[in-house]
Hints:
Layout: H1 4-13, H2 23-32, H3 58-73, H4 76-83
Amino acid sequence: MVRGSEGTSVFLEQGLEVAAGIRSPMVDFVATHPGHRLLEPRFMDIQQAVGTTQGRSPETVAYLRALVEELKADGFLARALDRSGRSEAMLAPPA
């Protein structure tokens, strides 16, 4: 198994037919390598989360939940993804 940019180098050097990886870097790779494509549906989905310890007060948990919802609703997370070049990443809609 190879990972990261080394993986795509091996894919090209060995003339392999299939590669798998995290979608965002694979989208970038396909965009810069004509003749390659992404297959649908995706075989894996990496879901991000915010967590805290079980001992936190209900008020702390409620605050974290509200903060994440606010960051989604006001577009902060979408703008952050756009700044990082990952505007195609999917965000859950605000609750």
